[in-house]
Amino acid sequence: MVSANPLFRGTWTAKKFQATVINDIWPEVLFFTLVATMVTLVSEKTSHNLGINTQLLTVLGTVLGLVISFRTSSAYERYQDGRKMWTNIITASRNLAQQIWIHVPVERKGAAGNTTALQNVIEKKTMVNLILAYAVSVKHFLRDEPGAYYEDLYPLISFLPRYANGMDGIESELLPLWHDEDEPYRKTTQPATEMERNSQSSSTATATRKEKEFDPEKALPTVYSERPLKPARNPPTTGILDYIPLLRFFKWIARVITRASRPKGRGKKRRYNEYVESQIPLEIILILSNYSAWCMRNGLVQPAIATGITGNISTLQDTLSNLERICNTPLPFAYQAHLRMSLWLYLFFLPFQIYNGFKYITIPGTAFAAFLLLGFLEIGQEIENPFNYDLNDLDLDYFCLAIQRELHLITAHTMPNPSDFAFSALNQPFAPSDRRTAAELTATDKEYHLPNENVEPGFASLRRTLVKGWKDVDVLTRK
After folding, report:
1. What letter does residue 3 receive in the DSSP assignment?
2. CB atoms inside a 10 Å sphere around CB 22
3. Are 142 and 325 in contact (CB under 8 A)?
4. Residue among 276, 310, 280, 281 nearest 293 (CA)
C-alpha cells in the first residue's frame, strides 16, 4: 500500500511541498550542478581538460550505493517498528476495554457490593476513558510535549488525585502527574462556581482554538482548567528557513554575533523550580494496574480474565518502552557525518570523471545523480523518527481518534442476556436448509424435526439439518 499523495489532496498550499525532500536538498543539488557547469565550461572554452580517470568512480559508486541503501532501509525499519508498536497499543486497548466493560460485573455482592449499579457503570466507563488517555499521552510523549494540560488529554484525566493525600493539599505533596513548568498557574485561590467554569472553558476554547470544521476535541468532556490548555496538535510553524536552508547559516552567524555583543548579566535569569518531568503514560498504567488489583482482591473477575487484563496492561507498558527506544535512539552522528561527507566528495569529483564521455550532458547528469543520492539520504534521515508533525510521519492523531471511536463502540454494548435476542422472530439460525425463525422453532416444546421429511424428531434430525445447510452453502457460494 502506498500512502496518499499529500500534494494533491485537498487545497494545495506551499506547506504541502514539504512532503517531498526537494526543499531540503535543492541547495546541494544546485551547488554540484554549478560545479559540473564550471568543469564543462572550462574544459570546452579553454585549452585545459579537467577530465580525470573514471576507475575511482566505479569503486566508490558501488560502496556509496550499498551504504545509502542500508541507511534508508534501517530508517524505514524504524518507521515500520513505530507503526507496529501503535498497532499493539490499538489491539491491547480494545482487548482491555472489552475485558473491563464485559467481565467486571455491574451487580456486585460482598465487600464490593455497597455501590449502586449506576456507580459501577460510571467506574467502568472511567477506566475505559483512561485507556484512551493513555494513547493520547503516548502521542504527546513521543512528540516531546511534556505535561498534562492539553485539550485532548486534560479532560480525560482531570479527575485524578493531585496531591498525596487527596485532591487538595500543599505544593510539596503534588503528585508527579501534575508537575509542570508553568508554576504561576499551578493553583487557583478559590474553587470556581459551575457558571464560572463554563464561562472560562468557553472563553479558553475560543481563544486557544481556531474555528474549524473538524474539531474532535468537542467530543471530549468540558471541564474547568486552572490554566490555559495547549492545543492537541501544535506543529511547528513553517518559515522561509524551511524553504531556503541556506539562510540558516546567516541566522547562526547573527546568533553568534548577538551573544558575543550581549553585556554580561543581561541574560534572562533562569527561574528555579522543582519541576521534574513525569511520564504520564506510566502514571496512567499505574492507575489501571491498581484498578485490576482492586478487582482481583474483591473477586470481581475470574482468574483467566484477571490474567488477560494484566497481560494487556503489560503489553501497553512494553510498547511504551519500545516506542521510547525508537524515538530516543538516533543513528550515531559519526556515521551520518561520515556518510554525508563521503557523498559530497563523490558528487564533487563526479563531473571531473564523466566529462570526457558526456561533454555537455555532464551538467544534467550530475544534477540527476545529486538529486537521486542526496534524496535517498535525506529520506532516511526524515523517517527515522516517525512521530513528529512532518507530512511523511505516522498520523498519531488518527490512531488516537480511531481508539476513541472503538472504545465508545465497546461501551455502547449493553451486555444483553442472549435469550433476549437469540429467540427473535428475525433470527433464522438454521438457514438455508431450514428457514423457520427461532420463534417458530421454539413455539412448541416438541423436539426438532426437519420439515417436509419423514425423519425421526430429535438431535438426529437437527444434525441432518446442519449437514444439509453445509452442502447448500458450499454449492451456493461457489461460482
Report:
1. P
2. 14
3. no
4. 310
